[in-house]
Amino acid sequence: MNTKNIEKRFQVLRTLLAIGIAMIVAFIIICFISEEPLETIRSFLIGPLESKRKIGNIITNLTPMLFVGTGVCLIFSANQTNMAVEGGFFVGAMLATVAATCLHLPTGIHTVVCLIAGGLAGAAACAIPAFLFVKFNAKPVVSSIMVNNMCLYVGLFVINHLVRDPAAGFMASFRFDETAKIGEMISGTGVHYGILIGIAVLIAGYFYLNKSKAGYEIRTVGRNVDFARYSGINVNRVITKAQLIGGFLAGLGGAVEVLGMYNRFQYQALTNHGFDGIMIGIMAAYNPKLLPLAGLFLAYIRVGADSMQRSSDVPVELANIMISVIVIMIVAERFLYKMKHKRIVAAAQKELEGKAEA
Question: Are residues 136 and 255 in the same domain?
Answer without folding.
Answer: yes
